[in-house]
Amino acid sequence: MQEILSVCMGVGLAAACGFRIFIPPLIMSIAALSGNLTLSPSFAWIGTYPALITFAVATVLEITAYYVPWLDNFLDSIATPAAMVAGTIVTASMVSGMNPWMQWTLAIIAGGGAAGVVQATTVLTRAASTATTGGLGNPVVATAEWGLSLVTSFVSFVAPFLAVLALCAVAVFGGHKLWRRYEQRRALAPAPSA
Does residue 88 lie in a domain region? Predict the structure, then answer.
């Protein structure tokens, strides 16, 4: 049962990386330093003061950068692979007592996948905001994203199963948006000539 909770916690934190990359590792570092989180031995570095300072500075820079009008869309283009890597690392750090091959396979598929799904949803949301408001609504989206990252990180510690259920809801929401976009493009496409 402990392994399942660890996996759910890791996947929830990975999903939070999809909203903002550095908030979940920052919270993990604080939790590890306060004695409320035991990390996998090879990831004990997350619970050190240099890591805490690095994650804190990176978090402030990341949150601030998303409020700069042209920079937010640029960051979305590089945040997707970065979020997937962060999601993989966060999940691997939470899973212990497993052979390394299984640990990393699970981390890549579940953690990287969770972060990728959430990040794709945020990219679609920001694109819709830019298209409909000319970018004026993007600060609202940015605030919601870092707030959701913070909430998802905390929920992952307190109620890991709930965090996974929330991830499923985001996946359904994102999939629905993608499907609607596909249907709209298909409806607008010219009919093939006979």
Answer: yes
The token pair that represents 9 in the structure block: 């916690």
As given in the structure block, the two tokens for residue 102 are 């299984």
Look at residue 52 and tell me if it is in a domain: yes
Specify the pTM: 0.83
Say whether 92 sits in a helix, a strand or coil. helix
Considering the domain boundaries, does residue 193 fall inside one? no
pLDDT by residue for the chain (194 residues), tens only, comes to 677 888 889 999 999 999 999 999 999 999 999 999 888 888 999 999 999 999 999 999 999 988 887 787 788 778 889 999 999 999 999 987 788 899 899 999 999 999 998 898 888 888 888 888 887 888 898 999 999 999 999 998 888 888 888 778 877 877 787 788 778 888 887 766 65
186 in a domain, yes or no?
A: no
Work out how many domains the chain is built from and give that number.
1
